[in-house]
Design a protein that fits this description.
Elements: E1 16-17, E2 24-25, H1 30-46, E3 56-61, E4 64-69, H2 75-92, E5 106-111, E6 117-123
Antiparallel strand pairs: 1-2, 3-4, 4-5, 5-6
Length: about 130
């Protein structure tokens, strides 16, 4: 067993894990590279939070804030909650649409100063 295999100039043949998103992919395979770029774009767009005039901030911290989204909030807020939930479900391996419905839940999002969603808590009536 050789812990330092020779790559013969083909460094991109093996699978690597992206430090940013954690996805495992083979950069030497065009389909894998494209899949990885799509994954990054989906995460970046879905987890970006630009803020709203009537946002409901429930707590503020030195490293971010917590925003609450309720079922009766404007459509753009409920839509953002649905986007975040779709990404969360996908990352956890749940089938699309099987998770919580934003129209029946209280959704708390943790937003960092860079305007990105870093956390999500979904509270549903029992």
């Amino acid at each position: 067993w050789n812990p330092f295999p020779q790559d013969a100039g083909q460094r991109e043949l093996g699978a690597v894990q992206c430090r940013s998103c954690g996805m495992l992919y083979a950069p030497g395979i065009p389909e894998d590279r494209l899949q990885h770029l799509r994954h990054h774009r989906r995460l970046r767009e879905g987890l970006r939070y630009l803020g709203w005039k009537q946002e409901r901030v429930v707590a503020e911290f030195w490293d971010g804030k917590i925003v609450l989204i309720l079922p009766g909030d404007p459509k753009y807020a409920v839509k953002k909650a649905a986007q975040v939930l779709e990404i969360v479900d996908s990352e956890l391996g749940f089938p699309s649409g099987s998770g919580a419905a934003p129209e029946q839940s209280r959704i708390y999002l943790f937003i960092n100063p860079g305007k990105a969603v870093l956390g999500c808590l979904v509270a549903q009536p029992v």
